[in-house]
Amino acid sequence: MNFRLNIPNFLLFFCLAFIGLNLIRLKDISRESESPLDQRQPFFAGKLYSQEKNPYNDELLKQAWHEESQAGEWVYSKQPGGPENYMLYPPFVASLYSLFSDYSWFQWGNLWYTLEFVLLFGFILLAFFHFERKHFWAFLAFLLAYKALFPALMLGQPLWISLLAGMGFLYFRKSNSLLAAIFLTITAFKPSIALPLFAFTMVYDFRQLLYAVGLVLLLQIPFFLHFGKDSFLIIQDWLHNMEFQQAIVFSDAHDFLVSNLVDISPVLGKLGIGLWLEKLLLLGSVGLILLGAFKKWYSEEQSLALLLLASLSFSYHLYYDVFILLLSIPYFMKKEWWYSVPLLALFLPGLSSLSIFLTPLLLLFALVLHLSSRDSKSLEA
User: Fold this and answer.
1) Which secondary-structure segment (H or E) carries 61?
2) d(CA 154, CA 21)
3) How many Å apart are CA 358 and CA 372, to the nearest integer?
4) In 3D, which of 193, 362, 330 has the Cα closest to residue 261?
């Protein structure tokens, strides 16, 4: 087995140093009453679902949390739900979490932390089988060094489910279309990971896309059967939650976008550009990427990397969503290690808006250089 990383020594030293810092941070782990923070929305939505109550009703969500805190006699400083963390997950997530409605919050928190490390191990294991060995070790070094690894685990984001499913989709994509479609369906836990993968299948395997869309619809059936004629009213509340969340995170007074290490929105915001134009830019960039994929301007791997970068650059989520980018790292490291240099910005604290704006552009510039060098070599041949 080749353990040689496909990166230079100085970059390896950089990764090892940050891996050490992450290990040091593990000693400060403590279980607070509110942890894992981002599990509260889906967990209590599942409890409301099991009681035949609206899982997207923010007041009911807060009430369920308050009642459990009183019963457990523990205090908290921050409620789940709005205005910063509305229940935004798809209806099938509430159905799934209802299976654990008999668990207490503390029981679920302990179970989730265990599940997270199982998901992380599965993610790494699938990456081991999917990538060439030298690319895998480089990938693993970046993953363990990334400064958001620890907070992402402690916050309890369901993105781990989507990441494992996304890697499963990539691994089985060419050998088992149905299994790949099942993994693709599961990525819907986290739309910012799922959407670029769904777009990817539009070009390279439309049958898998049809399978996945059908499976996503099937997953919603228990929800509609459970709530009957009230289902559509509840769906409206889900859409309203999305609207409220967007209005807050894209407002000038909020710091979500400023703290997002890879979001170009702070720059656009300072230029006075509104949300509608951001959406237009996103749709336009994705459209151009898909056009290039259909025209075979670049390889499948490069198409996927571009789609992931587009989703990442316009994401309004907090900075730990940059894990999306880890899926594309090996594709930028096929031959030339220096493609990974712009990624160093993702590890550094206190980035200015200019750095936030430049990071995805540098990555795209690296890809363009790679395409140019590939074309020139083919002409010489």
Assistant:
1) helix 58-72
2) 16
3) 21
4) 362
Instruction: Give the number of other Cβ atoms within 10 Å of residue 239's Cβ.
Output: 11
Q: How many CA atoms lie within 13 A of 28 on its CB side?
A: 8
Please measure the distance between the N-terminal and C-terminal CA atoms of the chain and give it in whole angstroms.
32
pLDDT (tens digit per residue) in 68-98: 888 776 767 678 888 778 898 888 899 999 9
Q: Which residues of 341-362 are buried (b: 16+ CB within 10 A; e: fewer)?
A: bbbebbbeeebebeebbbbbee
Alpha carbon distance 62, 217 (integer Å)? 29
Structure tokens belonging to residue 370: 């790679």
Q: How many residues does the chain have?
A: 381
Contact 264, 281 (CB under 8 A): no
- From residue 322, alpha-carbon distances to 22, 148, 243, 312, 330 in Å are 17, 8, 23, 7, 15
Q: Is 85 helix (H, G, I), strand (E, B) or coil?
A: strand
Name the residue among 368, 195, 358 with its Cα closest to residue 292.
368
**DSSP helix/strand/coil, 81:** strand
Handedness of CA 84, 87, 90, 92 (dihedral sign): positive
pLDDT at 335: 52
Predicted TM-score of the model (pTM): 0.76
Residue of 177, 156, 214, 148 whose CA lies nearest to 40: 156
Task: Assess contact for 5 and 12: CB atoms under 8 A.
Answer: yes
Q: Where are the domains of the chain?
A: 256-381
